[in-house]
Amino acid sequence: MSSDGETKIAIIARSDTQYLRDVLLGLAKRKLQPELLFLGSPVERFLSKLDSWQAIRSRLGFIEAARRSLGSSPPVEGSENLASPTLEDILREMPLELNSYNRINEGQIACRLLKGRYLTLLAGAGIVDNSVILSSMAGCVNAHPAILPGLRGMDVVEWAIVDSLPIGITTHFVATKIDAGAIVLTESISPGENENYGQFQARILAAQAETLAEGADRIIRGTHQFDPHDLSKSTLKYRMPAALRAQIPELYKRYRQKNILPASP
User: Going by DSSP bridges, is the β-strand pair 167-173/140-144 parallel, antiparallel, or unpaired?
Assistant: First the structure.
């Protein structure tokens, strides 16, 4: 454990996902040892689905919300990661304090964070409020799958494909407005020549985890940039309707032709 005055790392994740595991592996690669992991309970995951359903109903209507609640989309071809250590495997090599939570903003997480100087990383955690942001004394950081300033909010990769915009990752400090905090670093990502949509999605997710870990490393070492986010140059996007979302694999093929990754020399 670190001394009280030293910056320590806390991670919040709603569930055990490939993204969370990749973030942990990225930190380990940089010899960064997190001290806390907050993992959502089954209650948190149920209530988060309910929150999402209500948000979809409010924004897109009852029929759209009902359609999404009746079943999950099948995995996109090429998106599977066939060789990855389990969370249990990773935690055996990276022991830390594991905490379960029912609601991310209910106060439990904030109270624990106030016991030290923590840099808090959001690894698929949903929206946090000021209780978490302000109790993270070294900052609260997220990796967003878009280049900022640019597309904020939901389904930004899909919206970028529809709108023919550049795709990338931005690690940024978390503010009360969605995806609005100061920018730590950005990375552009273009499709490969023969890369299908599932493979591209998987590479974006892996790059998102890597960029979050790299941002944490720079913040801990004090070498990060701190660029303000000019919100006048960004657009807040909401959930994409299912009918349009179903067209994304085909739209991606056209996007790939126009934005193909340059071949290595």
Answer: antiparallel
Q: Which of 211, 210, 192 is nearest to 252 (CA)?
A: 192
226: confidence class by pLDDT, cuts 50, 70, 90 = confident
In terms of pLDDT, which residue wins out, 64 or 152? 152
pTM of the shown model: 0.86
Cα–Cα distance for residue pair 149/127, rounded to 1 Å: 19
Q: Mind giving me the DSSP string for 122-181?
A: ESS-----HHHHHH-TT-EEEEESS-TTTEEESSHHHHHHHHT--EEEEEEE--SSTT-S
Task: Please give the pLDDT value at position 79.
Answer: 46
Q: Tell me the C-alpha distance between 129 and 110, whole Å.
A: 10
pLDDT, position 84: 79
Choose the CATH number for 7-258 among 1.10.340.30, 3.30.9.10, 3.40.1390.10, 3.40.50.170. 3.40.50.170
Contact partners, residue 62, CB within 8 Å, separation at least 6: none
C-alpha–C-alpha distance, residues 223 and 230, integer Å? 22
Residue 127 burial (CB count, 10 A) = 14
What does the pLDDT look like over 30-87, one tens digit per residue? 999 999 999 998 767 666 666 565 665 666 666 665 655 554 444 444 444 556 799 9
